[in-house]
Amino acid sequence: MYTYTVYQSVLQFLQNTLNLYAGMSLGQLFLAFWPFLLIAIPRYILSEIVILVLSLRREPPAKAAFVARMQNHPPLVSVLLPGYNEAKTLETTVVALREQSYPNLEIIVVSDGSTDGMGEIGRKFARLGWVRYFEHRIRGGKSSAANFALNAARGDYIVICDADSTFDTDSVWYLMAEFYRPNVTAVAGNLRVRNFATNLLTRCQAMQYLMSIGVGRRVTAWFGMLFIVSGAFGAFRREALLSVGGWDTGPGEDADLTTKSRVIGGQVAFAPKAMCMTDAPDKWYAYFRQQMRWNRSTVRFRLRRYRWMLYPMHRPFVWTNVLGMLDVVVFQIIFAAIFPFYLIWLYDAYPNLFWYIVASIMLLYVVVNYIHFAIAVAFSERKRMDLRLAIYIPLYGLFMGWWLRTVRLLAYADEWLFQSSYKEPYVPSYVQEQSRDINPW
After folding, report:
1. How far is CA 25 from CA 28, 140, 165, in A?
2. Average pLDDT score over residue span 389-404
3. From residue 270, how far is each of 24, 189, 222 by CA, in Å?
4. Which tens digit of pLDDT belongs to each residue from 339-355?
5. Domains in the chain: how many in total?
6. Spatial CA neighbour of 188 closest among 100, 263, 271, 97
7. 3-state secondary structure of 268
8. Cβ burial, residue 140 (10 Å; 0-12/13-18/19+)
9. Cis omega (within 30 of 0) on the bond before 61?
10. Distance CA 368, CA 45 (A)
11. Quick check: 261 and 161 in contact, CB under 8 A?
12. SS3 329
């Protein structure tokens, strides 16, 4: 009886909505739904077209030849594991790296002032010959530890990853294969949520990783617009890292380094089969803090440090760099800033239709999110795991469109007004102060 009542209520709501829209002109409908029509739909359609085109392409012969040469003479790859208080996860990560099918790896662990016993584990692995271990007695931040490991590295290729991640057996091979193009200086790995089944928050993040990274980064890489190699799992040519001075002080040091690698003329590739499983925050406040930190860095680097990339008079001026920057600035920053004003205007222009329009937009997003989800699952390496997320797609629009957009707005405003990224405990304060005004670009 209860289910039937709900069903009747939904039908009545839909009927009322259609009747109200029937009295609106095409111009009024366009104004009411313009964010969905001009921003969401084109991006979704473009993503699906690119993914389908990629699925029909064969592997380039040059890539197969490059992999064959590596199989005969695999170059040394240095895997950097900088970490702070990672005693609980370091062993799992090192074991996962030692199980890689790539035959010529060195693993460099740097404990960055850890106080939880990470040092004892690192020294034990060093005695076993599993890793090369170093430690900072005083914490200097992830960038400091990563740069120390880089200077100690002997490989021509560098893989950076977090000390709380695990990897599919062939992940390093898939990263390395993308260097078949000489102008590729960095390769992004594919990230997935290992603890997705913990609660609703981790499931929402799993959907975000599946669609935003698994699909989104394929698309931006195809257009030559990828601007992020995550610090959780990615690879670089060693000479490119050294030429740009390695990692600068974070947070956001991974996006900063990727941008620097593009500034020197390099391209960034994406290796969708190079899978890295990482734990996502399972508490809302922890997730809030993480997103505030990540999104502050968007303003810090996109609108401050590298805004000159948009100016034609500056060199190097590269159209793919401009488009990649605009993709972030327009769709993440400007649209997020406009959205509250759109809602205010919508309520003022259509007070009687406001909730009908909002509900209609949310319903439309559910439909397109299911289509996007289906495409993402079709190209996923973990279809069974991903299909378990299907029932949560109706909540994904709330999570991304309302919760995450609100957090982004707070982060953008906070960074723009107060430059709070320079006060983040993610990096020791004395390091932040020393690097605040350094800008080699």
Report:
1. 5, 61, 53
2. 94
3. 45, 6, 8
4. 999 999 999 999 988 99
5. 1
6. 271
7. strand
8. buried
9. no
10. 9
11. no
12. helix
CA gyration radius for the chain? Answer: 23
Helix (H) or strand (E) holding 185: strand 184-193
Domain membership flag for residue 6: yes
Distance between CA 7 and CA 172 in Å, rounded? 51
Q: Is residue 87 part of a domain?
A: no
List of residues 6+ apart from 153 with CB closer than 8 A: 78, 80, 106, 108, 238
> Residue 276, SS3?
strand
Give the SS3 label for residue 343.
helix
> For residue 200, what are the domain limits?
1-56+168-435
Average pLDDT over residues 270-294: 96
pLDDT band at 440 (very low <50, low <70, confident <90, very high): very low
d(CA 341, CA 436): 33
- Of 56, 109, 123, 114, the closest CA to residue 78 belongs to 109
Total number of residues shown for the chain: 441
Residue type, 401: G
Give the DSSP per-residue string, 21-59: HHTS-HHHHHHHHHHIIIIIHHHHHHHHHHHHHHHHPPP
The Cα–Cα gap between 386 and 380 comes to: 8
What DSSP string describes 386-422? HHTTGGGHHHHHIIIIIIIHHHHHHHHHHHHHH-GGG
DSSP 156-173: SEEEEE-TTEEE-TTHHH
25: left (phi over 0), alpha (psi -120 to 50) or beta: beta
What is the Cα–Cα distance from 171 to 185, expressed in whole angstroms? 18
pLDDT for 435 = 62
Would 88 be classed as within a structural domain? no
Mean pLDDT of 125-148: 95
181 domain-assigned: yes
